[in-house]
Amino acid sequence: MASREGDMWSEIVASGGLQPPHIGVVYGRRRVEESSGRRIMDARGSFGGEQRPSFPRRKRTSWNRSLSIRGRESIFVAPGAQLQLQQKPCRVPKRPPKPCNRVKKTTSGPPDMRKEKAYFEEVDAFELMEESPSPKTFQSWTIGNQSIDHDLPAILERWKISRLARRASSEPLFDIMETPIIPSVLSNNSTSSSLFRTPERDTRSGRHTTGRVIPLGYTDVSLKSTAKETNIVTSLGKLNIKEEPVEDSIPWTGEALTAFEQLLMVCKQSVPVTLAEVFSAYCELESIKKLGEGTYGEAYRAGKTVCKVVPFDGDIIVNGESQKRSEEILEEVLLSLTLNNLRSNQGDDEKKDSCNGFIETKDFRVCQGPYDPFLINAWEDFDAKRGSENDHPKDFTSEQYYIVFVLADGGTDLESFALVDYNEARSLLVQVTASLAVAESACEFEHRDLHWGNILLAQDESPDTNHTVSFALQGMRMHAVTFGLNVSIIDFTLSRINTGTAILFLDLSADPALFQGKKGDKQAESYRRMKEITQEHWEGSFPKTNVVWLIYLVDMVLHKMKSLALGAKVDRELRSFKKRLASYESARDCLADPFFSDLLLEDAELSSMPQLESDL
Ligand SMILES: Nc1ncnc2c1ncn2[C@@H]1O[C@H](COP(=O)(O)OP(=O)(O)OP(=O)(O)O)[C@@H](O)[C@H]1O
């Protein structure tokens, strides 16, 4: 099937679009035998009684999978906090620090963590005692017959405090004192939607303000007070949510939870379990099938779920990359939890912003041990049939840690999925745009890596003939026509989000290779375009990066439509839509484009759907 792959690319090149993927050898990786010539016929997709063909995956190029020097960073926000323009984009250490159990002493003695300690104990006691938590922000999940509740605000708060504590303990004093402090102001008139918002574009400088935000009543220990006398101890003292005098708090014993310990807590585990234990909660181990792979994760089908296994904290290089660290995993978990909170159940119309377009994360589990033989079988099976670009997992030792993301099955990625008509293409575009618009509105979400491997498509098996998906955008309930195709967005590794407590982002400037993809390649150009837009202030809010990926998506659709030969009208329509997209500033703007007008329905219009469907 290598030749068909070649054809696909030459078609795009001929159309003035994509260049063939640049495959530069950066890491000495195992090559997949070309002769294995694989064409994937995905039995999951059928249309009009026929099998829906799927395209073979393009080989990942070294530049697009390399995030060799990573570091997920975070800054904390408080309601009403005003961001100040930062002199330079903040750089992160080349490698995230190793998790450690002890808070190291600084030159001015151990940080005073009495309030944080008290807070931890309060949160922990609450988690242990709570039997049926009721706050709306609680997300209930199920594993087997067990119901699992995640208190996102408490998790975020605990994570924030320990992060600050770690920074205080691990950074030399001069680093901590380097950045000027910016006082935050809480306006009593703040509306709920403006509470967590990163300030709008600074019209004088022509770019967004991107300084660090200091939580109200908190002082980020990486920041220095304008008043020189503020020292680390008092800074940390101010971290507490309650404004009690420090002296009244319980004594500090010098210990703070590491990211690893917090990961365990989020997973409601006291110790890691084995991979087999996790998988056996969802399926018979013999039935496990590998579905796909990324640089960091291997995705397996386990019963009705998909389990993505990501090794972390180990020293061995995996797939040419250093393994992720607990800190990064924890922040990815926080990101997934935040996006999970956008989900709405049937009849749940309370949320101002909601959608189901981001893959549902059903659970997370921390595992340890060698790779399970059943997973190795599934891995080898996939390799034999489709050819894996990843390293064989046999080398993992009994010390190795993994996080397993238990996800809903989102179907087949767009790269391998054959769209059968223009309606499916339009539905794909409206669903992705609506999801991005909702997440943008709810939490300043930017995906920042929405290539066609990160969009999953599945045919709607439900008996409901309406074929719509519902979402709420700024309090307005809407329905998008799906034509029977459900779209899920995955992989939030590069994403930026404002959780309301913190801004989570990845400093992409630490990975220059990401911007060195071949000229003309649509995906490579998208990273470069994001770099122009953000001016490398990756912590800032730039919803236009979502528009960049929507434009990329139209290009992918144009390419896919070519093989359907739908004619000049469709081509013209898509191209003029793409042109208009370039003038928009956010996914929300894009959603208001006339291209979507007959694909979006308000509540009252839903009843006329069958009519509408035949009209389209
Ligand atoms: N929920 C899911 N349902 C179906 N398939 C999935 C799901 N999650 C992941 N996959 C498959 O696994 C592949 C790899 O997943 P993903 O992109 O999340 O991994 P990753 O290691 O984070 O990737 P990257 O290299 O882009 O960082 C996807 O392209 C898809 O084929």
Descriptive account of the structure:
There is one protein chain. With 616 residues, the protein is α+β, with helices and mostly antiparallel strands. The protein is built from 17 helices and 22 strands. The chain has helices at 2-14, 62-65, 114-129, 152-170, 173-176, 192-195, 232-237, 259-266, 275-280, 326-340, 373-386, 422-443, 522-534, 544-562, 568-581, 587-591, 609-615, and strands at residues 46-47, 50-51, 72-76, 139-143, 146-150, 179-180, 201-202, 207-208, 223-224, 289-293, 298-302, 305-312, 361-368, 401-408, 412-413, 455-459, 468-473, 476-481, 485-489, 497-498, 502-506, 600-602. It has a five-stranded antiparallel sheet with strand order 10-11-12-14-13. Helix 3 runs antiparallel to helix 4 (152-170), helix 8 (259-266) packs parallel to helix 10 (326-340) and helix 14 runs antiparallel to helix 15 (568-581). It starts with a helix and ends with a helix. It is an enzyme of class 2 (transferase). Keywords: ATP-binding, Chromosome, Cytoplasm, Kinase, Nucleotide-binding, Serine/threonine-protein kinase, Transferase. InterPro entries: GSG2_C, Kinase-like_dom_sf, Prot_kinase_dom. Pfam families: Haspin_kinase. It is found in: Chromosome; Cytoplasm.
Name a few traits of the molecule.
alpha+beta; globular; disordered N terminus; 5-stranded antiparallel beta sheet
Q: Which ligands accompany this protein?
A: adenosine-5'-triphosphate
> What is the first-to-last residue Cα distance?
35 Å
Largest sheet: 5 strands, antiparallel
- Helix-residue proportion: 25-40%
| Contiguous uncertain segments of 5+ residues | 1-50, 64-70, 79-113, 119-148, 171-196, 199-254, 611-616
What would you call the shape?
Answer: globular
What oligomerization state is this entry in? Answer: single chain
Beta strand %: 15-25%
Global mean pLDDT: 70
Strand order of the largest sheet: 10-11-12-14-13
Number of discrete helical segments: 17
Total strands: the figure is 22
How many whole angstroms does the radius of gyration measure? 24 Å
